[in-house]
């Protein structure tokens, strides 16, 4: 493994690759049920696709900038790209080995045989012919090209193709239909189940074509393109309309990767490089099959349970059976814990607010909307019922632009005021504000969360959501919305930390307080849980705190640019990363405060973009019961010795191991709430 860091900072993109290696470790972990291991292969593949479409394309764009400015953005982009390619190919080798030498044999033990076209029986060949003739043939195009001509072969972004060299002067490119399931299940035979890729059904049938030799070899290819939209001027005109019009650019953007079958001969690679307009740096070696994200839908034709037992979301102990969620919030703050507790409480809050005749105003931000959503339906109902509904929709949420635009139009059509993306800044906060008229005037309610207003991800991501009627928090929350509505310029908040205004300075002050305690000989400690830690100013601050004697414990799921355990720099900093069945997504910030902990939750990672270039909201947790719960849950994560990895100087991803009883934090958390 190449050196991924200097003495102070890991490179963020190389650190992300170490995160994806942790996903690969889960695929290799034989303690996981077989279909969970297959799912982790799919996650690894899906993650890598997005990495090439987004991060690699960003580094390529930086290469075009003149050197003095480029150095401020990234040091030696070519060197970084070479290291990325090297690390990806090492991981692809490991990926292929796990699949071939572990997953395939394990499937066979359960009488599930994933077969190629050369293994088809006589009966399976006939079935493959019928399926091809009746279904695949009309959806498949076989395009042939002359190697001697200047060819510009267009292939769709992220689509799958087979290619083959027909002769010294001709080659063919064949699409694999995207609207058909990737896997085909043959009838059971002698107690055994047989599954094949549709790639193999195509290969078998194409070989029957008189123009193709029977022993011809097909190779899989997939081209990834730059996913940036490159809006020319965000400051003028209708930004939402510009984004809508730019979405098609993704289909024709610059190549960031050509994934090939590593068995492809070098001379044929040269032909394809020219035809597909790619360079050596773009070519990444893969296996016989690409798009392993399709394994999310890998069929289990047996009656054997080969996945984890489901952890059904639990009803919230207070909100699940109550008559009025608004009344319960008035009595006491309520904290929700997804996916261990049901998202239903939040849906019911919005449904209640939509129908309550005393509720006058509902304001919320949407970053990633679910495709179909009861929560969004409640917003529509509220607007129809004459409430003042203001929805801020972040149309720049990458890969969710089209769906967010769709919901924006639905809300507008039903009477809501919809505000779309702001120029040069993303609205990443997950906030809701409700106003209700009372005999004395009005009552405010707020909801501040670490995760999106999305029913689907609430079952997959671990997140926290605070429902509160605290006057100061709710007043602060309304100020944030007034900024979004462009009625005030700066939200002067008393309790909330709001990026890009006060989050950085607020956290800095909290860290400095711990440093002062340490220097005075008092107990001083900081515990932070987040997705990514990349902001150099905050990392420097943590180094200073470590040198002052503050004990620092970090839980970082993904990118971690801080280098821990270095004498004179970070010897008091210990970092672990948990990767398990749920995606760790919640952000929790705990400052010891001499025995009276200050605890916050919110949407902001400690990345430069979250602290300086996005609207983020972080709330204190004021209720003592909820403080205790969060401390208990974080302690479970700190004690995890089953799914936790140590983030050390070299990011080797060594599992936490000790002689104590095994503790798997996510299962322990479910039991805690149960």
From TrEMBL:
The active site is at residue 428. Its cofactor is Mg(2+). This is Polyphosphate kinase. Residues 325-487, 496-666 form the Polyphosphate kinase C-terminal domain. One of its GO terms (molecular function) is ATP binding. InterPro entries: PP_kinase, PP_kinase_C_1, PP_kinase_middle, PP_kinase_middle_dom_sf, PPK_C_dom2, PPK_N_dom, PPK_N_dom_sf. Belongs to the polyphosphate kinase 1 (PPK1) family. Mg(2+) binds at residues 368, 398. Keywords: ATP-binding, Kinase, Magnesium, Metal-binding, Nucleotide-binding, Phosphoprotein, Transferase. HAMAP family: Polyphosphate_kinase. The keyword Magnesium applies. An intermediate of this reaction is the autophosphorylated ppk in which a phosphate is covalently linked to a histidine residue through a N-P bond. The lineage of its organism: Bacteria, Pseudomonadati, Bacteroidota, Flavobacteriia, Flavobacteriales. GO terms for biological process: polyphosphate biosynthetic process. Residues 124-298 form the Polyphosphate kinase middle domain. The keyword Kinase applies. It comes from the Bacteria. CDD domains: PLDc_EcPPK1_C1_like, PLDc_EcPPK1_C2_like. One of its GO terms (cellular component) is polyphosphate kinase complex.
């Amino acid at each position: 493994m190449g050196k991924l860091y200097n003495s102070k900072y890991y490179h963020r993109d190389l650190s992300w690759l170490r995160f994806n290696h942790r996903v690969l470790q889960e695929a290799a972990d034989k303690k996981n049920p077989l279909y969970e291991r297959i799912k982790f292969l799919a996650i690894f593949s899906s993650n890598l696709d997005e990495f090439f479409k987004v991060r690699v394309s960003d580094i390529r764009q930086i290469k075009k900038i003149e050197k003095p400015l480029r150095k401020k953005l990234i040091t030696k982009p070519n060197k970084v790209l070479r290291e990325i390619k090297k690390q990806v190919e090492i991981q692809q080798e490991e990926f292929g080995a796990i699949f071939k030498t572990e997953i395939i044999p394990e499937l066979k033990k359960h009488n599930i045989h994933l077969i190629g076209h050369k293994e088809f029986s006589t009966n399976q060949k006939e079935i493959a012919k019928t399926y091809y003739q009746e279904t695949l043939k009309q959806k498949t195009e076989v395009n042939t090209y002359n190697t001697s001509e200047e060819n510009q072969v267009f292939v769709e972004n992220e689509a799958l193709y087979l290619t083959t060299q027909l002769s010294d002067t001709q080659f063919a490119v064949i699409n694999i239909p995207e609207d058909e399931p990737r896997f085909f299940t043959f009838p059971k035979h002698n107690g055994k189940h047989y599954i094949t890729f549709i790639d193999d059904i195509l290969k078998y049938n194409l070989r029957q074509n008189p123009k193709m030799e029977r022993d011809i070899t097909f190779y899989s290819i997939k081209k990834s393109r730059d996913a940036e939209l490159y809006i020319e001027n965000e400051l003028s005109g209708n930004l939402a309309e510009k984004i809508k019009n730019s979405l098609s650019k993704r289909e024709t953007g610059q190549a960031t990767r050509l994934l090939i079958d590593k068995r492809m001969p070098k001379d044929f690679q040269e032909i394809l490089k020219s035809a597909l307009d790619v360079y050596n740096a773009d070519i990444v070696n893969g296996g016989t099959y690409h798009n392993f994200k399709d394994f999310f839908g890998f069929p289990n034709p047996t009656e054997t349970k080969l996945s984890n037992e489901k952890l059904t979301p639990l009803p919230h102990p207070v909100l699940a059976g109550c008559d009025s969620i608004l009344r319960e919030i008035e009595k006491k703050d309520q904290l929700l814990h997804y996916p261990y507790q049901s998202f239903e409480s939040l849906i019911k809050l919005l449904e209640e607010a939509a129908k309550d005749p005393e509720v006058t105003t509902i304001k919320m931000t949407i970053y990633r909307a679910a495709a179909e959503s009861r929560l969004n339906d409640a917003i529509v109902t509220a607007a129809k019922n004459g409430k003042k509904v203001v929805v801020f929709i972040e149309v720049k949420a990458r890969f969710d632009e089209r769906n967010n635009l769709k919901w924006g139009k639905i809300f507008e059509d039903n009477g809501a005021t919809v505000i779309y993306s702001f120029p040069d800044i993303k609205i990443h906060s997950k906030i809701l504000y409700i106003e209700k008229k009372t005999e004395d005037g009005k009552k405010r309610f707020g909801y501040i969360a670490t995760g999106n207003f999305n029913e689907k991800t609430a079952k997959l991501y671990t997140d926290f959501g605070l429902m509160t009627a605290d006057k100061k928090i709710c007043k602060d929350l309304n100020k944030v919305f007034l900024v979004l509505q462009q009625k005030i310029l700066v939200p002067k908040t008393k309790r909330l930390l709001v990026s890009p205004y006060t989050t950085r300075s607020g956290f800095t002050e909290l860290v400095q307080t711990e440093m002062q305690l340490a220097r005075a000989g008092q107990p001083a400690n900081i515990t932070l849980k987040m997705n990514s830690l990349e902001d150099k100013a905050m990392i420097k601050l943590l180094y200073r705190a470590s040198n002052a004697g503050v004990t620092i414990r970090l839980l970082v799921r993904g990118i971690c640019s801080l280098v821990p355990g270095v004498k004179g720099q970070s010897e008091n900093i210990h970092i672990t990363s948990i990767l398990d069945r749920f995606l760790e997504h919640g952000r929790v910030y705990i400052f010891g405060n001499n025995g009276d902990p200050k605890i916050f939750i919110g949407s902001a990672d400690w990345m430069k973009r979250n602290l300086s270039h996005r609207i983020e909201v972080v709330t204190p947790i004021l209720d003592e019961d909820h403080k205790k719960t969060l401390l208990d849950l974080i302690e479970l994560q700190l004690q995890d010795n089953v799914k936790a990895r140590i983030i050390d100087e070299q990011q080797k991803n060594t599992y936490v191991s000790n002689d104590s009883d095994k503790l798997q934090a996510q299962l322990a958390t479910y039991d805690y709430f149960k």
